[in-house]
Structure formats: structure tokens, C-alpha cells
Known about the structure:
With about 100 residues, the chain is α+β, with helices and mostly antiparallel strands. It has helices spanning about 15-30, 60-65, 70-80, and strands at about 1-10, 35-45, 50-55, 85-90. It has one domain: Alpha-Beta Plaits (2-Layer Sandwich), CATH 3.30.70. Strands 2-3-1-4 form a 4-stranded antiparallel beta sheet. A hairpin with a 7-residue loop joins β2 (about 35-45) and β3. α1 (about 15-30) packs antiparallel against α3 (about 70-80).
Amino acid sequence: MIEVNRTYDLLPGIDRQAYAKYAKKAISTSLQAPRLVEIRSHRNILGSPQVRSTYVWQTLADWARFTESAERQAIDSELRNFATNIRMEIWGPSPVVPEPLRPSK
């Protein structure tokens, strides 16, 4: 599996209701993508970047197919109305720690 992290800051003075509507539409569209495992979203308690969304995909090819879709391109284009400092990172499993580790109870 791979994780695609997108971070950004919200533009000052944006219409927060319009942004919330956009976010719901973007999430709904993304959840329909084949082989998407999950979406997680977080806010940065310490400041910038203000938003991080993590999309977990079965494979890099699955993510690549989605990024080429008209739906995804529309999502990316509309985000620019609300955000700045948009950054994307793609992470794969670690060869040293390929699975999550959890403390034993």
C-alpha cells in the first residue's frame, strides 16, 4: 500500500461554508475511486500547514489512474480557490518496518 499526503494552508478570508461544501464533495468523489483503502484528514494544531489529507491506495498505479481522471483534476482545480502552499508527498512501506508496530498489552 502507499500513502499520498496532501498538505495546504487555507487562504485568508475564504468562505468557510463554501470550503466545507467543497471538502465534502472532494471526499465523496475520492471515496468512489477503485482500490482506495481509506482517507484520513487532520488539522495541524501548531500552525502551518493547516490541513493534511492522507489517501491510502492499494498500489501506486491505482493512485496514478485516479489522478488522471477528470473528477480528480476538477477536485485539484477547485482546491486552488481555497488553499495555498499545496504540497503532495507519496510514501511507500519501509523495508525495515513494513507493517505497523503496536505495543503489547
